[in-house]
């Protein structure tokens, strides 16, 4: 009794200190245990940064079972379900974590303030000394504010030139090398650097030097043959290389512009322009360097021609082989008149409202990450896209200058692709897809992560032979639609496809033609928190068949596929609401009526005992029933699927 009195007195003495504290209230009222989670109240980031938010909790014996993350403004900052925040553009976004714990469900928020990235407009010191040009093998004239180069050779320039450098050499033979060794060239009359004639122009940015090319002309109002299109302009092949720093600031039209081939091999290069930041009419190739490419009212990187040169070279292709390139574009991040090919390097693209530099009055109507008129191929490298419109897009049927029509295909052979399709208002551009090919979309390897989109993968034909594809979509996750007059088809023979989509009349896989699986792993989810058979994992207008691999579907079934020999089925309360028709679309004729299931799959990781199979359910999501088709099952054997203390058992048939 004496000890109990002492404890009560001690608690009463603490009441003034902890007045209103839920922990003390819980103790006195003998309520359930009380816990709390904590995020840093404020976080400062710059555009392009990523940061893992530090989530802590108390008391120490509280177990955190799951955490969901949400951003109040994805145009400013996004957050994935691991708590990794990506800074998109200037502004403030509130990031909220909601944790399900052994004590209850708790939330906390962090205000993330994003500033413009220093690397995306790096301040480069302008030169103030006298302008100097030297050469051992060239010919030039320096008169007033005009430096005119008239022959092949290597020319080194430094100091301040309030004027321009004009290259007017022999267009058939003269190769000109211009070494920037700490120079600032500013012109309000014409392009600060303009090669009107030469066989080629190579701009070498000397190591440990800072260089500025500034075009202060008024905005372009009409075409003129007397004016260069960019701050750096050329009517010959143009190459930029070196290890120094170069800032190109355009006001008239484009940043770096050539009517021929443009190649970037090196340098720390920042280009900012109202229209196209980088434009090579014949081609653009990025082999190296650290590039910040900014277009405030146009496209980031662009080609124009689609004919074949006299030497048999196809024009219009944009190729990324290496380097680190960040593109901010009001319009398309990359617009290739013919093909786009990525063989390596790191490429990051922000378009439309996702770019911190988009002008409010930008008159553009396309905001895609990468857009091509023919083929889009990713072989290797890292590609990150935050776009207002389609992430990857390939047109079909465009009349090309080589006499052919664009084939409209996208092929992913390797690399790591991450795509977020978002609009600042929280709405998607109508039909905005993460990956859209009018004709054929093929995934042979690599990883593809689609964190948000209207539709995830869309094409007339979708073929997955390998790779690891994760799709989060507000509408259909995978959509095969009739775009080129041929019957659509989805075919999966290998790899992994994991699909989560939003509510409403949406489907994990929606084929307006056939669906065929011969291998690989597919995990598809119907609309969450819904037991309607009109929002399912698979909706197929034609024949649907599974002859190999594993197909896991959460929720009700609208299409019931036929299965081949050796493929068996586990049904954990998933009802069939098919409308009849070809293949396996029979099932119960429930149409779009709601189905009931006592087997409910809630958030967490579910594993199938004895089958080495698992799938996840996102926080806050519930699916009514599940069905598994797999060649890894043994006929007649019982399999238990479990998540913590919840489990369901079914026999393979």
Task: Give a written overview of the molecule.
- The strands form seven sheets. The protein has a 46-stranded mixed beta sheet that branches. A four-stranded mixed beta sheet has the order 2-9-8-5, with no helix packed on it.
- Strand 11 and strand 12 form a beta hairpin.
- The radius of gyration is 30 Å and the shape is elongated.
- The relative contact order is 0.05.
- The chain is mainly beta and 653 residues long.
- Helices cover 3% and strands 48% of the residues.
List the helices and strands and how they pair.
Layout: H1 2-14, H2 22-28, E1 36-38, E2 42-46, E3 50-52, E4 56-58, E5 64-71, E6 77-79, E7 84-87, E8 91-101, E9 105-115, E10 132-135, E11 140-143, E12 146-149, E13 153-161, E14 164-168, E15 175-187, E16 193-197, E17 200-205, E18 210-215, E19 230-234, E20 237-242, E21 245-249, E22 254-258, E23 261-264, E24 268-273, E25 278-280, E26 283-286, E27 290-295, E28 301-302, E29 317-320, E30 324-329, E31 334-336, E32 340-342, E33 346-351, E34 370-372, E35 375-378, E36 382-387, E37 392-394, E38 396-399, E39 405-407, E40 409-412, E41 416-421, E42 433-443, E43 447-452, E44 455-464, E45 468-473, E46 478-480, E47 489-492, E48 496-501, E49 509-511, E50 514-517, E51 521-525, E52 538-540, E53 544-546, E54 550-554, E55 562-563, E56 568-572, E57 600-601, E58 604-608, E59 613-617, E60 623-624, E61 626-630, E62 638-643, E63 646-651
Parallel strand pairs: 2-9, 12-14, 13-15, 14-16, 15-17, 15-18, 16-19, 17-20, 18-21, 19-22, 20-23, 21-24, 22-25, 23-26, 24-27, 25-28, 26-29, 27-30, 28-31, 29-32, 30-33, 31-34, 32-35, 33-36, 34-37, 35-40, 36-41, 37-42, 40-42, 41-43, 42-44, 43-45, 44-46, 44-47, 45-48, 46-49, 47-50, 48-51, 49-52, 50-53, ...
Antiparallel strand pairs: 1-4, 3-7, 5-8, 6-7, 8-9, 10-13, 11-12, 38-39, 54-61, 56-61, 57-60, 58-59, 58-62, 62-63
